[in-house]
Amino acid sequence: MTRARPRHVFLSCGEASGDRYGARVVESLRRRDPHLRISALGGSALKAAGVEIIRSSDDVAVMGLGEVARALPALWAARRAVERHLTHEGVDLFLPIDFPGFNGPLAGTAHRAGVPVFWLVAPQLWAWGGWRAGSLRRNIDLLGTILPFEPDYFRARGFEVAALGHPLMDDYAGRFPFESSTAAREERLGQRGGPLTIGLLPGSRRQELDALLPILKVTSQTIIGHLGGRDVRFVLSLAPGVDRDWLGARFQFGAEVTAEPLPTLLPRLDLALVCSGTASLEAALAGVPHEIVYRTGALTAFAARRLLKVRHIGLANLVMDRRLVREHVQDEAAPLPLARDLLTWLARPADRATFHDDVRQLRKVCGAPGAWDRAALAAIGLMESRQRAAERR
């Protein structure tokens, strides 16, 4: 049977990592169906992939209780625009990418409209909010998981699961020269008087940047003081969607500011200070010794301390269920302990050797490359099964 129109896939993501993941899904989908219409609530990566952007993800890229309250008008406007799109634009498949606070209600809208929902990057119900499992399960046809412990967790709660493997393995396995880059980094770290390159990866959310940039600036100054004249170069990573001028005005320190992708940036770093999130897992997979740092608003932190059910916030630590790297959260994210602990990596080669052994194990646990190829196959299979069911009726 020949279709009267191309199939229409709609993606929704709310932050830089989801935008990047979405672009990779689009690439895999179009290899399998070049005629797909693909629209999205998304950012620069999806736009560069040629996707029809109906609303910018910058409008919804907030987290935390106080931050969400302040952004409610923009969030409601974006939600209404997406709901109209889902119900009036002939969408054949809804692909929400994580971001459950915003995407959860949209999954309900799609479900009621008869649009199948393939949720990519499962929400972290295992960390907090497990009570949401029932409502999400009713509105999701297929749930994509990327962390190794997630398939069992979600299947036990009644979800139909597609175990994708972690998408970062496309960047950090096979093509990524881990052993050679690790050897080069160790050689640089062993040169006591040689130049040292330290990465600062503060994330992409405005409220995280507001909280972390002053801490990272003072920490950098403290590191320079501790190293007593050694040539230290700081590289500040500009995440997609973050304005360079805005960032520069808040971090006047003389660091190199770069928008290069992390798989390109990380191999040239010797050490790093990394905001909790996807970037922390990337730093681990790349074998960069680092400290995880996270600060948010006081109200959000108060709620999180009572809701979180996990012992770690760093993704590598979560995956391995033990501490590969130290975590500095809220008041512990202070310049002096951050500088001291980061420089501990420099002083202790045995700690770095243990870390690299842990990273090799982490890479094995995260699975084989090809997550988005598996996601594209599952997405097309879901649309085809729905079409066959409609033809039988």
Labels describing this entry:
393 residues, alpha/beta, Rossmann fold, 2 domains, six-stranded parallel beta sheet, four-stranded parallel beta sheet, 18 helices, elongated
Topology:
Elements: E1 8-12, H1 16-32, E2 37-42, H2 44-48, E3 52-56, H3 65-70, H4 72-88, E4 93-96, H5 100-112, E5 118-119, H6 133-139, E6 142-145, H7 150-155, E7 161-163, H8 169-172, H9 178-190, E8 196-201, H10 206-227, E9 232-237, H11 244-250, E10 256-258, H12 262-265, E11 271-275, H13 278-285, E12 290-294, H14 298-307, H15 315-320, E13 327-329, H16 335-347, H17 349-365, H18 371-392
Parallel strand pairs: 1-2, 1-4, 2-3, 5-6, 6-7, 8-9, 8-11, 9-10, 11-12, 12-13
Helix pairs in contact: 1-18, 4-5, 10-16
Question: What does this molecule look like?
Answer:
Strands 10-9-8-11-12-13 form a 6-stranded parallel β-sheet, with helices on both faces. It has a 4-stranded parallel β-sheet with strand order 3-2-1-4, sandwiched between helices. Helix 1 packs across helix 18 and helix 10 packs across helix 16. With 393 residues, it is α/β, with parallel strands linked by helices. The protein contains 18 helices and 13 strands. The protein folds into 2 domains: 183 residues, Rossmann fold, CATH 3.40.50.2000; 190 residues, Glycogen Phosphorylase B (Rossmann fold, 3-Layer(aba) Sandwich).
